[in-house]
Amino acid sequence: MHKVMIVDDEPMIRNGLTTLVDWEKHGFTVAGTAANGKEAVEKRQELKPDLILIDIRMPVMDGLQAIEEIRKTDKACHILILSGYADFNYAKQAIAHSVDGYILKPIDEDELESYVERIGVQLKKQSDLLLSSEQTASLLREELLQQLAAGRLEGRYQEKQGMKELLGSPAKVYQLLLIELYSREHSLTMNAMLRKKLSEVVESRQLGWVFSAEPFIGVLLKDFVLQSGSREQMRQWIEECCGERIRFAAAASEPVREPEELLSSAEAVRGLLKKRFMLQGQQIHMARVSGQDNSTGEELRDEPSIDSLAQKLYYMIDIGSKEGVAKTLEEASEQIGRHNEAEQSVKSSWAQLLTIVLNKAATFNPQFSVQDDLNVVTAVYLAHHYDEMLEQVKRKLVSLAERIGKADSSSVMKQMTDFIERHYSENIKLETLAELFNYNSGYLGKMFKNHTGEHFNTYLDQVRIRHAIELLQEGLKVHQVSERVGYANVDYFHAKFKKYKGVSPSSYKTSPGKSGGE
């Protein structure tokens, strides 16, 4: 609705004019009244009326003086003069101030309504034209911003002057911000919802423009540089607009002096969001163009040693070393990330690693159920961010170490010999145990010799031979026993057995007449 202000020093006339015309029918609402010219000038600044009905002769400041003051700052407002004097000089002055009509008192209702109707039609045409113009400008600006975010300008948008006109008042600094939304609950309206809410925040503060840059939401910031406090403020605004169920990752360009300079940094911003899985969620990350790494993480390096990492990780769980679990996870993280930062590759490597570890845990600890722990593999594939995934994996494996780990207050030597008893069939070495128990291998070897009276390898061989005899007496074939106690080569097993027992393995079989597969 358009606003009208009624100015007259007679209260009865002011009140009468508010009901004399069907204002709403012609698109008006009475916004306020004034009793003299001075009050009218003051109220006009507050009410910003589209039409003023004003008497000429009033105390303090007359109508013509008030019109003269109003026209100094407002050339567009429509004015109808009400006067009880048919004086040509008044009419001449009124024409000089671009008034729309001069109505003599007593006021003719039909004449006044005719003026109001005509002015209402004019205002509607102006509003429609302005709205059409604003809508066109909005569509053109949206297309310009989309091209800037894509790193290319085409057609009319290459003209510098036209670009600045679409972007509104000039700024000293421009910055591009792209936001990616995601949620466990799939929603086609997430982007539209955020754009609407964020527009209300950003554009109401005249900080820039919010636009669609599929699959992202874009923000062109003007004189609002994302650093320290302002960066945190923007992060909070985005988080508040997203609500609790929708998460986001955002990347911003370096600030530039001219909007077209954003073309060279748009690719870096998009490239950074391609690595969203490796970024921390609910944060705004800065994309660097000069001398910085904005790669998409697709460079391949040495394959991570998944089997050896899994073995080491399980050993840490087995001895109940929570610190060892955390340290080995860091080592695994470095190897996996160094090989390939692509999301699916990283998730696949971690799923493989965890599957091996949990299968070992189930095999060596049948008294414990690790079925629920396998859910962590599914969680890896559902994770939105690497740091969150890694923290979840760490919690799960530390919990597993607390449940099945053999950590106790006994001496390191006792823990080592117990560990050998549990894992003699595997390819364990003194260096393996030195790393597990955080000792220098040379020093640990001397400690072990002093404690057991045997070198580590000799002690391991003796444990294996002892278990081999038990298996032979159960009726297993020699080649089966060789493999089960940790000797892949059956001839090597023969040699070791004879070295320590003076006879061949078959001598210990329950049926001496059968060689058992020698």
Topology record:
Blueprint: E1 2-7, H1 11-20, E2 28-34, H2 37-47, E3 51-55, H3 63-73, E4 78-83, H4 88-96, E5 101-104, H5 109-150, H6 160-166, E6 174-182, H7 190-204, E7 208-213, E8 216-222, H8 228-242, E9 247-252, H9 263-274, E10 284-286, H10 306-318, H11 322-339, H12 343-364, H13 375-382, H14 386-404, H15 412-423, H16 430-436, H17 441-452, H18 456-473, H19 478-484, H20 490-501
Parallel strand pairs: 1-2, 1-3, 3-4, 4-5, 9-10
Antiparallel strand pairs: 6-8, 6-9, 7-8
Helix pairs in contact: 2-3, 7-8, 10-11, 10-12, 11-14, 12-13
Quick one: CATH superfamily of the largest domain?
A: Reverse transcriptase/Diguanylate cyclase domain
Secondary-structure-derived class: alpha/beta
Assembly category: single chain
CATH classification class of the largest domain: Alpha Beta
Number of helices: 20
Description:
- This protein is α/β, with parallel strands linked by helices.
- The chain folds into 4 domains: 106 residues, Rossmann fold (3-Layer(aba) Sandwich), CATH 3.40.50.2300; 143 residues, 2-Layer Sandwich (Alpha-Beta Plaits); 99 residues; 97 residues, Orthogonal Bundle (Arc Repressor Mutant, subunit A), CATH 1.10.10.
- Helix content is 54%, strand content 11%.
- It has 20 helices and 10 strands.
- The strands form 2 sheets. Strands 2-1-3-4-5 form a 5-stranded parallel β-sheet, sandwiched between helices. It has a 5-stranded mixed β-sheet with strand order 7-8-6-9-10, with helices on both faces.
- Helix 3 links the parallel strand 3 and strand 4.
- The longest helix is centred in the first third of the chain and has 42 residues.
- The chain is rod-shaped and about 140 Å long.
- The N and C termini lie far apart (103 Å).
